[in-house]
Amino acid sequence: MAARAAFADLLRLLPTHYSGWLETGHLCRQMGAMDQADAAYRRAIAAEPARYEAWLGLMRTLEMQGNFEEGEACLQQATVAAAATTSNGPQTLREAWHRAGQYRLEQGDLARALPALRQARHFALQDPDAARGRDEAAEVLIDIGELLLRDNQRERAMALLTEASTATREATLARLSQTAFRFNLWQEAIAILRRNLALHPQSPWAHWNLAHLLAECWQMGEAQTLLQQAEALASMPKAQILRATVASRLGEADKALAIYQRYHAEHPDDVGIASSIAMCALYSDALSPQEVAHIHRENFSALGVGARSRESFVRPPMRDGDGDGDGKKEGMAVASARRLRVGLVTADFHFQHPVNIFMQPVLRELDHSRIELSVYFTGISSDAQTLLAKSRAEHWVEATALNDSQLARRIDEDAIDVLMDLSGHTGHNRMRLFAQRAAPVQMTYLGYPGSTGVPNMDWLLGDAVVTPVATPGVTPDGSDDLYSEKVWRLPGTVFCYAPEEDYPYPTFTPAQAKRPLTFGSFNNVPKLTPHTLRLWARILAALPESRLLLKAPSFSDPAAIAAFSARLSAEGIAPQRVEFRGPVGLAEMMAEYADVDIALDPVPYNGGTTSLQALWMGAPVVVKAGGHFVSRMGASFMTAAGLTDWVANDDDAYVAIAVAKGQDRKDLLQLKRTLRERLLTYPAWDVTAHTRAMEAAWLGCFYFYRKFILRAPSAVAAA
Q: H/E element holding 490?
């Protein structure tokens, strides 16, 4: 708003100032004020019709509102203006076409983006400076490659991205690597940045970019070396953040937390670092559930300042009178009136991501007679799974390029009743959007294992085990007091694992009961805390013939293997009793559970997807019920599976259960043979019932809002 006022002051003094009107148009578009953006761009065009930028801005605004015919006419005017540039016509034309293609690509308009990008490549190759033309063409090829990947044309995309990798400009190669990594081409991304470093050995950013990418790919040893080399060449402002990332990914959560907190003290407005602190706190052995809850509330309380009120949202009633009665009954009654409008905000509908794994079956089973669903996709990568989710959603909004103000405006225009966050404090989250309130009812689910601490996040979906009800007169660990949100408890278990991929169930023969007993964990290494390793060492010490299989992305890194081997050795476990395995494809990983007799759940951050995958593949899990959501997921899953005898309440019981189950190989073998069949008899693995329960949660939470918030705010506490 301050920028907008300043531009208004400028334009009062200079009413035909081209750049003033152009930047005002950009600003209004970013704020979601499309009519004002349109007017500002037209004033810029009137001031200097021979310049192309305002024509492109107007094209972008028109097409964002669905006016494609006039948008195309503006693009043609832009290219006419660009072609008339006397000094560098081909370069200006390349720039105009490239920007147009990028604008359309960010809106998900692949059909219109492709011809514009092809024109941009054509003009790039006409550059009289061949080297510069090659690099500019590579920039365009990166976008065409991304477009083809998003359109599931992988082979064509790979050919063009390979051509782009012949560029020599550092910024181009860095951008190409980022694109490759987003689409899970991490080996190719690393190769690109290694070439970039060879071409630019004195560049601190060439060292930094490779260090950062290697850390993202769980190769911590080399990442630390490259970070030191980058810092020897120049001061790196974010070096402490990368060091915290490395520490976290080496299982040193408390060290990482301390680094993040020091950085945040110097940069208190950095919401991304606040989210990193929140995530890191979940892994800490040293923090109690109450301390974790306090960190979340303290770090995000300021985000709610100036938020929109719930009462300001105008939504039609669900039925005449929006009557009284039980919320779940209300939910059933609305089918004869209008449907409930639900919005999902997520960046994570893509292959192998847990949000995608759990939500795809829900999208498939959704009752569209009751629920009108919109997905606001905020991701920066997409694949065949993204396209599948898009086909299942009634409305799909490409929201990556929308800032929080624009996205909030779009959500309100869509009249969303219930807005559900699927990210929490993980990557590409929109916590500020929720804190400022974008819908009358807001909830969080799945993407983050616990309370967000974010103001105006109204509900958290849990279950009776992962979020137990407080005992009257007592406030036990795990009670509602730990959550800044109200808790809606789903039946069964909070997450329903119903994979759409077919993973053949292992054949468990009597010979497996005679092999050395193998405990296993496929959890990422930040969960392998000192407390966890001590527990596992006690189990292996009690069963001297047993062994431990640890599988994680980090264990493709010799430095990580050496670190964890040393830690286990310090606990008395000989290195030859531990096997480390690195990452493979999802189908191959699932098959590897056949090598695990018993899975061991880490503490305090339990396995989520990994534990459910282990159960699905016949590996029962020893779990410990902790004090809050993140440390009670295992107890939830095993209770829902009818395996409460695998749930411990303290460390000694955890060790005792693992030892007893491991010693009874005959009983263990029988359980493993029938485990998937057993799961399918329990309601928690019925995704249709789970989807109905989620629909009831959405309807019930909206009913609560209509009855107790709008009609009688004073009754909320009593309700």
A: strand 486-490
What gap in Å lies between CA 517 and CA 697, rounded to an integer?
43
State mean pLDDT over 284-292: 96
Mean pLDDT of 297-323: 84
- How far apart are alpha carbons 629 and 624 in whole angstroms? 12
Alpha-carbon separation of residue 12 from 5, 9, 54, 86, 185 (angstroms): 11, 5, 19, 32, 51
Contact (CB, 8 A) for 523 and 610: yes
Q: Do 417 and 436 touch, CB atoms closer than 8 A?
A: no
Q: What whole-number percentage of the chain has pLDDT above 90? A: 84
Per-residue pLDDT reduced to its tens digit, 206-228: 999 999 999 999 999 999 999 99
Whether 475 has a pLDDT exceeding 80, the answer reads: no
441-444: strand order across its sheet: 395-398, 371-377, 340-346, 418-421, 441-444, 459-463, 486-490
Res. 328: pLDDT tops 50: no
Residues 6+ apart with CB under 8 A from 181: 189, 213, 216
> Phi/psi at 609 (nearest 5 deg)?
-60, -40
Q: Which residues contact 241 (CB under 8 A, 6 or more apart)?
A: 259, 260, 263, 273, 276
The mean pLDDT value for 414-425 works out to 97
Residue located via tokens 């959007």: 433
What is the structure's pLDDT at 84? 86
The C-alpha atoms of residue 561 and residue 554 are separated, in whole angstroms, by 8
pLDDT for 308 beyond 70: yes
Cα distances (Å, whole numbers) of residue 474 to 330, 469, 470, 477, 489: 32, 10, 7, 10, 20
Which part of the chain is CATH 3.40.50.2000?
Answer: 510-685
Mind spelling out the 3-state secondary structure of 37-56?
Answer: HHHHHHHHHHHCCCCCHHHH
**Residue in the block written with tokens 């606040």:** 274
| Cα distance between residue 167 and residue 164, in whole Å | 6
Q: What is the mean pLDDT of residues 394-418?
A: 93
Sign of CA dihedral 37, 40, 46, 50: negative
CATH 3.40.50.2000, applies to 510-685 = yes
Beta bridge partners of 519: 548, 598
What confidence category does residue 333 fall into, taking pLDDT thresholds of 50, 70 and 90?
very low
Mapped onto helix, strand or coil, the DSSP state of residue 1 is coil
| pLDDT tens for each residue of 364-388 | 999 999 999 999 999 977 788 998 9
Query: Above 50 in pLDDT, residue 526?
Result: yes
* Domain 310-496+688-715: assigned CATH number: 3.40.50.11380
Mean pLDDT of all residues in the chain? 92
pTM: 0.88
Question: What are the tokens at 183?
Answer: 């689409």
Residue span(s) of the chain under CATH 3.40.50.11380 come to 310-496+688-715
Q: What average pLDDT score do residues 288-292 get?
A: 96
Q: From the CB of residue 427, how many other CB atoms can be counted at a distance below 10 Å?
A: 13
H helix intervals, 108-233 = 110-124, 130-150, 154-164, 170-182, 186-199, 204-216, 220-233
Tokens representing residue 25 in the block: 């148009």
Return the DSSP state at 286. S
Q: What is the pLDDT of residues 534-557, one digit of tens each?
A: 999 999 999 999 999 999 999 998
d(CA 144, CA 101): 9
| Contact call for residues 580 and 564 (beta carbons, < 8 A) | yes
State how far the alpha carbon of 621 is from the alpha carbons of 466, 469, 631, 647, 674, in Å: 16, 24, 14, 9, 15
